[in-house]
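### Sample
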Amino acid sequence: MSGSTKQQILTQLMAHPDEWLSGDQLAQQVGISRESVWKAINALRKRGHQIDSRKNRGYQYAGSRQLDALAIKVAAGSGFTGPIEVATTTASTQYLAKQSLSRQAQPQVAAFLADQQTAGYGRLGRTFYSPAQTGLYFSLVLPNPTNDLSQVGLLTTGVVVSVVKVLQRFFPTKDFGLKWVNDIFLNQHKVGGIITEASMELESTSTAAFIVGVGLNLTTKDFPTELTAIAQGIAPTASVDRNQLAAALLVAINAAYQQYPSTALLPFYREKSVILGRPVTLQVGQRAVTGIADTIDDRGGLVLTLPTGQRESFTSGEVTRVR
């Protein structure tokens, strides 16, 4: 059974999610025999796809509980054409992306997803809780089109805005907020985070590619004790088709990346910020800076008004306290 036959059948089924398609229809549309349709359906079911069948009506697609590279590829269509890999479990999708990058002479856009991470991490090496089945954890290799690191703040803000816009489509009743630079909040709890790492070219000081990691707790109910006060799942009782969500996120992030570096998404970022106008403490290395979070500048930097009245822009650091 060729991968392309399975993909063609899955494409037809996913394109008509609420319709019954007869075996004859599918055979005709794909140009194969009825028996080949039946074999493809069985092969797809073995991959975790739920396909209902009824006598005299045919087949109907009912989603998948498992992350599946083929389904993500079909759902993304021409919006994301790079390779897509899905692992059942991995230490971190960032590691998968970096391993792939180390094997390439020329970086190319690619996506790496995992159902579970055993050592998922965010900025400053903090662990990101990544249990199986209830979250979406993925990393993207994005070649640097500018050979410049000074605009990387616009990449992170562009990715985080793209992610939130997609989440709003999938969870329309939720009011997401952003904590500079890369945390996604809901009801004053963290539900997701973004990490941007650079892959340097050894022969020069330029950056060959960015490795962008996204971690989302979607339906996670139970968190380790130390996280219960600060983290939660977006919708613990919801049913989420993670393949459809993953595809939508890859398409949106890829579209933002095609515009990089651009300030077009910054107004949305500022609008969703949970810290602007509030007194904050920013930890920059060993230095703790306190001031009013004034705005996000056109490089994605956080501008603080200090107690002296002076304004200063920061492109790195972590907001450790918001009052």
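DSSP finds eight helices and 14 strands in the chain. This sample (Bifunctional ligase/repressor BirA) is used throughout the tutorial notebook.
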